[in-house]
Amino acid sequence: MRTIATLLVVSLFSSLLAGCGSFYTGISKNTVMVKKTNQEKPDAEVEYGGLLSEDTVKTLSVNAVNKYFGHNLSLDDAMIDTSSLDQQQIKAVLADATSEMDMKQGFLVEYKEQLIKVAGGIYMSTIINKYDSEDMYGVVMNAKDGEVIGLSKVNIEKRTSSPTESKKYKLTEVVGLAEQFIETMGDYEQDALEWDDSYYLNGYMTELYFKNKETDEVALSLLINIGSGEVVGFYKDIMTVLQLWIGKRMYSTSVQKRD
User: Are 64 and 70 in contact (CB under 8 A)?
Assistant: First the structure.
């Protein structure tokens, strides 16, 4: 389990979570998958050093999977492994990811606000259904308040499958689906975000990036199955930054721009 969690982090979250694996596609095409998770502040006795305890992380992670994917897992139904990155480790990962990239200013300046939000670090949970080893999820949350900033379902066995060209959604349609999804999240004001015109395409999964119109900062990325038209994962704030830069490093030839 520790190995799985490590892979979940180090790929960051681009290979296993955003490309090499397949994601949950069992929801009807016209149904928006993700529901906003109600963040419940844990009681004082389950906190440790101002951060969430491991038990609380596990509980919140399973709750997020159930709410976002319409599942009904209990803690007893799942094998759960947790790991974490503190802020310094996050900076180290980001430094490595941007080391060969041409940036106008250093990443500590460019992503100051995103880093401030995770001053206490992040927790990662790998959740596997005990009764179905292919039923596997990744959850990333803010270590301070339990806010879910990354979530996806991974199905490694179907990683090589892809839809026929006739079943693929067009880019304009995918962007439209993404914009509809953002409205349902409840985390952003209407028209606060805009697509930055870039995306990654890997098999039948595409990842679109959205930025804050006022600050021009990357804020959200959505994973969409272009065969079914379903939003199958998302990353917020610092997780979107990590996705973007590690994606650029690993799949630089796959970055495409709208004509």
Answer: no
218 with 245: CB under 8 angstroms? no
Q: Report the chain's C-alpha Rg in angstroms.
A: 17
Helical (H) or strand (E) element with 55: helix 54-69
Distance CA 95, CA 109 (A): 12
Closest among 3, 27, 7 to 224, alpha carbons compared: 27
Span of 8-12, 63-67, 114-118, 142-146 with lowest mean pLDDT: 8-12
- Within its chain, how far is the Cα of 216 from the centroid? 20
pTM of the model as a whole: 0.74
Please say whether the beta carbons of 223 and 207 come within 8 A.
Answer: yes
193-221 exposure pattern, b = at least 16 Cβ within 10 A, e = fewer = bebbebbbbbbbbbbbbbbeeeeebbbbb
| Cβ pair 102, 108 in contact under 8 A | no
Out of 97-106, 189-198, 214-223, pick the least confident.
97-106
